[in-house]
Every structure is written in structure tokens, then in C-alpha cells.
Amino acid sequence: MIRVLLADDQALVRAGFRMLLETADDITVVGEAANGGAAVALTKQARPDVVLMDLRMPEVDGLTALRRITGDPALSQVRVVVLTTFDDEASVFGALRAGAYGFLVKDVEPAELLRAVRVVARGDALLSPGVTRSLIAAFAADPAVAAPAPDTRLRPAGPARTVRPGVAALTSREREVITLVAAGLSNDEIATKLTVSPLTAKTHVSRAMTKLNARDRAQLVVLAYECGLAQPGAGPGPLG
């Protein structure tokens, strides 16, 4: 059973999400919070698998709550997905850098919400090939408008690109795989693109994450743009 915590200051939004989530036999809502402080406290108490976190909340906002959760080693198994509207772009970028597994817009379709919770619960980042990639590209191309990184490991060393020791250790194939991940391709799509098995594609992604010290696929995408391994506007090219 996937345990979900809802954090949103609007009771109606929480009620709607709860109703949708609990239509699934494999998902249960273990708590609701109306602000970030309560969300952190409930996360420590209930230990959910997934937290759906609104960014704009009173007292303690969602980004601050996210940083507190991802910064607590005891909560390392908790995966946070931010809930947002399209005018929260800078905060979304900051959330990805802080360790969020992805984001959902609040008008998400019911089936997509259920799929997203399942994807994140199994440890995969929720990266939309279109919206997420263009969002990250836009803010990686202009770091001045991106939210500050709470994790010093991910903070750019200069005004444009950061240099990470692990970049030099990447093989040419790992660099190629990283650009495809940044373009929004899944492991299966990468395998098709490179004519390798899905297991081989997954291995290349895992090794790249290890070398760059990326905690998950979402942060690997952010680092790809920050380090210049991926370029804004560059697509993966046609499959096959």
C-alpha cells in the first residue's frame, strides 16, 4: 500500500485529491497538512511514501518544508512531489534542486495523478518530457532567475555553469545518456535510441548519477543543464 500525505492550505484541494487517491486499491492517504510546518511534523510522524506538497502555503511555505524533509536523514525514503500552477516556475526549479522528485500541476487529470503517485513511490522521478524539460532548460539557461539552491552540492560555482569533479569521469556513452535523460526520455526510450537493452540503459543512468552525486533522476537533469551537458532547446532527435 502506497502511503500519501497531502500538504495544501486549501481544504477543498486536499479533499479532492484525497477522494481521487482513495479510489485506488493500492493508495491510502495517511494525513493532511494546511502548511509546511505541519507537513514536516506529520511526515516525521506518519512516514509516508509520497508527499504531495503545495508550494504556496502560509507560515511555512512548501519549498522550506521540502528542504527540511530532504535534509533529514531519517526521512530519506520519503519522496516529495510539488503541487504547483504554471506561474510558480522559479519555485519549481528550486524545488527540483532541493530534492523534489518532480511536480504536478493542480489541474492534473485523475488518472495522471494516480500514475504519478505510483511512479514516484517506486523511486522514479516524475519528469514530463515536455513541460519539465522546457522548464528546467529555461531556468538553467538563466541562473539569475532560478531559486537559490539549498544544497551546496548543487549550487553553481559561477554565473553560468558549475564544474563538478564527476563530469571528467563520465564516459562518452554516459554523457550521451545524460543528454537523453535531460531531454525527457525514459530508460526504455533511451534503450531504443541507442539500440541497447533497457537494463544497459538503466545501468548507464545509474552510473552517471553516482559519478555526479545526483540523488535521483530529477537532480541528474538539473545537473545536466547546470554543467552544460545538455543545452536549452536541444531535443533528443528522432527515435529509432
Description:
There is one protein chain. The chain is of the alpha/beta class. It folds into two domains: 2-126, 3-Layer(aba) Sandwich (Rossmann fold); 135-226, Winged helix-like DNA-binding domain superfamily/Winged helix DNA-binding domain (Arc Repressor Mutant, subunit A). Helices cover 45% and strands 12% of the residues. The protein contains ten helices and five strands. A five-stranded parallel beta sheet has the order 2-1-3-4-5, sandwiched between helices. Helix 6 (131-141) runs parallel beside helix 10 and helix 7 packs across helix 10 (217-226). The chain is globular and about 50 Å long. The termini are far apart. Residues 145-161 and 236-240 have low confidence and may be disordered.
Outline:
With 240 residues, the chain is α/β, with parallel strands linked by helices. It is 45% helix and 12% strand.
Characteristic key phrases:
240 residues, alpha/beta, Rossmann fold, Arc Repressor Mutant, subunit A, five-stranded parallel sheet, 5 strands, globular, disordered C terminus
